[in-house]
Design brief:
With 186 residues, the protein is of the alpha/beta class. 37% of the residues lie in helices and 18% in strands. It has a single domain (6-184), classed as 3-Layer(aba) Sandwich (Rossmann fold), CATH 3.40.50. The chain has helices spanning 20-31, 61-72, 89-99, 125-137, 165-184, and strands spanning 6-12, 36-40, 75-79, 111-117, 141-142, 148-150, 157-158, 161-162. Helix 1 packs across helix 5 (165-184). The radius of gyration is 16 Å and the shape is globular. One of its GO terms (cellular component) is cytosol.
């Protein structure tokens, strides 16, 4: 058994119970190559809405904990649903908080892979486009390919388990590229 050399923090943009995107991250944890371990963050729902007035010492504990986890991670994997052609507010809120952290977000220069699942016919094409733009603005090293945009997600998961072979292959390829990018140092 290979001991993972690198740690990837996985963030789901969904807050609901049983979301496809969190299931996608659990599948990523199971499919990760031996050189990386994937830790699925418990959720972004504990973060308060970003408010500059809250930028006092001490910062909210949920914000500090997310920042610590990002700093410890060698790379990030973000799975986003699509809400009204964009990323969900919870995910944008988390990035906004991290972008304001004293000493930096922890995302600058960090390899980040993006994926997403939706029951719609377009998957998460528009949300991922916006997310990639936001991540680039905070200095993250966003992987361009492979793209994992799971459309008609209700047909690719069974009781929270990713069962679609093609999607599993795409996700495995994305994780392999993330592992290679981490190994190369960003």
């Amino acid at each position: 058994m290979t001991v993972p050399e690198h740690h990837v923090l996985a963030l789901s943009g969904s807050l609901r119970a049983g979301p496809y995107n969190t299931a996608l991250l659990r599948a990523a944890r199971d499919l990760a190559p031996g050189s990386i371990s994937v830790h699925v963050h418990p959720g972004l729902g504990d973060l308060p809405l970003y408010n500059e007035d809250l930028e006092q010492n001490p910062l909210p504990e949920a914000v500090l904990e997310l920042h610590r986890q990002i700093l410890r991670a060698d790379g990030l994997l973000i799975a986003t649903p699509e809400h009204n052609s964009a990323i969900p507010a919870a995910l944008k809120n988390a990035i906004d908080w991290m972008s304001r952290m004293p000493g930096g977000s922890g995302m600058s220069g960090k390899p980040v892979a993006v994926a997403g699942a939706s029951p719609g016919a377009l998957g998460t094409v528009r949300a991922q486009l916006g997310l990639r733009q936001i991540l680039t603005s905070v200095g993250a090293e966003v992987l361009a390919k492979p793209e994992v945009m799971v459309f008609r997600a209700h047909e690719r998961f069974d009781d929270g388990v990713l069962t679609d072979g093609f999607t599993r292959t795409l996700l495995t390829d994305l994780l392999s590229e993330l592992a290679a990018r981490i190994k190369r140092g960003g």
